[in-house]
From TrEMBL:
It comes from the Bacteria. This is Glycosyltransferase. InterPro entries: WecG_TagA_CpsF. Keywords: Glycosyltransferase, Transferase. GO terms for molecular function: hexosyltransferase activity. PANTHER family: PTHR34136, UDP-N-ACETYL-D-MANNOSAMINURONIC ACID TRANSFERASE. The keyword Electron transport does not apply.
């Protein structure tokens, strides 16, 4: 499988099905791995923070979560069939985990979201075993608190940990904790709110048009307007400049 570099961030060319297959293979084998679902926001964050870029590039899979990334991959010679959307992949992985009796855990978000997700996700993935669910405080944890959470996740026997802490916190957490927990950690972000039924997903036509950001901005203008006013123009201009300066495909 090929990978494409976009503004210094590696993206792996995979379909949603291929990604889910790989994640389940790792989980069944008891491996410690982590995967990120990255978009234009992730790339702009990585431009400003080399340590975050390193967390993405060290991931066992860094997948194209947004259509803007998919288009850039194709423009650079990549054979990327579609976006590997975090919420869709989380549900696909959950269904396959249920079928294979692979236990999973939830880490992140608020107690309300975690409680609703713990009840609702098995309805969409019948037979899913959620063996642990932790909502950490929205602040840096002390070393003792962090170690207690790691121990809970290890003791639970979870082979997959869905992580919903938001970008860039969740990707850093996965990079720092996958080996300590000994499981496959997936940074899926807003998937927690979507599958808990607390946030509407953009219609499919807007997702395919690369306009999910506009839909989410309309839903949460106060929280997101600063992010998108910074991310969208910078990503468009930076990627256009890179393609002019490096016209040959960046396949690996």
């Amino acid at each position: 499988m090929s990978a494409i570099s976009i503004l210094g961030v590696r993206f792996d060319a995979r379909s949603t099905g291929q990604s889910a297959d790989q994640i389940l293979d790792w989980a069944r084998a008891g491996e410690a791995r982590y995967a990120c679902f990255s978009n234009a926001h992730s790339v702009v964050e990585a431009l400003d923070d080399p340590s975050f870029a390193d967390a993405l590039n060290r991931a066992d899979l860094n997948l194209p979560d947004g259509m803007s990334i998919v288009r850039e991959m194709r423009a650079r010679g990549g054979d990327q069939p579609d976006r590997v959307y975090g919420p869709d992949t989380m549900l696909e992985v959950a269904r396959r985990a249920a079928g294979d009796a692979v236990p999973v855990a939830l880490y992140g978000s608020s107690p309300e979201v975690i409680d609703r997700l713990r009840r609702r996700l098995p309805l969409r993935a019948p037979g899913l075993r959620i063996v642990e669910a932790i909502s950490p405080p929205f602040r840096p944890l002390s070393p003792e608190e962090d170690e207690a959470d790691v121990q809970r996740l290890r003791d639970s026997g979870a082979r997959i940990v869905f992580v919903g802490l938001g970008c860039p916190r969740q990707e850093r957490w996965c990079a720092d904790h996958a080996d300590r927990i000994g499981a496959v950690c997936l940074g899926v972000g807003a998937a927690f709110d979507f599958h808990a039924g607390l946030l509407r997903q953009a219609p499919a036509v807007l997702q395919q048009a690369g306009l999910e950001w506009a839909f989410r901005l309309a839903m949460e203008p106060r929280r997101l307007w600063r992010r998108y006013s910074r991310v969208v123009p910078r990503f468009v201009l930076s990627t256009a400049r890179e393609r002019v300066l490096q016209p040959s495909p960046s396949l690996t």
